[in-house]
Design brief:
Helices cover 9% and strands 40% of the residues. It is mainly beta and 208 residues long.
């Protein structure tokens, strides 16, 4: 339900919006790209959609984050944990954090069912401990950001369900929870003038 100046307003797609978070002002403007797709951009023409989502799960609890020297209680030795473990009920949908291509889809005793996705920029993401795969998900499939690729599971009955998630870039582990990823795109100069014209028209309407 939308409210404009204290009154209910008709629903529909949001064309422009502005909000304040503390001292920070956030603006969003919907703009149609040459290929017909639509994206929200800030006032400078940078997409508000990041290259990767903040999490592969909507329902989750972090139970183990990236660490280069965690103690393994049973083995009583130190081994690096180069990913993030998300606790979630079995069957919780797992989404790809970014656009990419499934490079590996398999199964082994350590990770159960798992998926590896290759992304632009040398990034790869790994999703392990799955109880099943998403619809039409197979090796070589192209996936969209936010597309369901699998379901949370576990390797054995003695372990609570969780997702084993990892990211690498050019073969090196990435600390996913502490990395601020760039926008998906920034408008090129050829489209900037048209965008700014629409932006200014929206700003005139947004003024109190």
């Amino acid at each position: 339900e939308l409210v404009k100046r204290g009154r209910k307003a008709p629903g529909g797609r949001i064309l422009a919006a502005e909000m304040s978070a503390g001292s920070r002002r956030i603006q969003a403007f919907l703009y149609e790209l040459p290929d017909g797709s639509k994206e929200y951009f800030d006032a400078k023409g940078a997409s508000l959609r990041k290259q990767f989502l903040k999490s592969p799960l909507y329902f989750r609890r972090v139970i183990s984050a990236t660490s280069y020297k965690p103690l393994r209680p049973v083995l009583k030795i130190y081994r690096p944990h180069l990913g993030v473990d998300y606790a979630a009920p079995k069957g919780t949908p797992v989404s790809s954090v970014g656009e990419g291509t499934i490079s590996i889809l398999g199964r082994n005793p350590r990770n159960g069912r798992f998926i590896e996705i290759s992304h632009k920029g040398g990034y790869k993401t790994f999703y392990g401990q799955l109880s099943g795969y998403g619809k039409n998900i197979r090796k070589g499939s192209k996936v969209a950001q936010g597309e369901v690729i699998g379901l949370v599971g576990t390797t054995d009955s003695g372990t609570a369900p969780f997702l084993d998630f990892r990211m690498t870039r050019n073969g090196k582990p990435v600390n996913y929870l502490r990395t601020d990823f760039p926008p998906v795109q920034t408008l090129p100069r050829a489209q900037r003038q048209d965008f700014e014209k629409q932006r200014d028209a929206f700003l005139a309407v947004l003024k109190p």
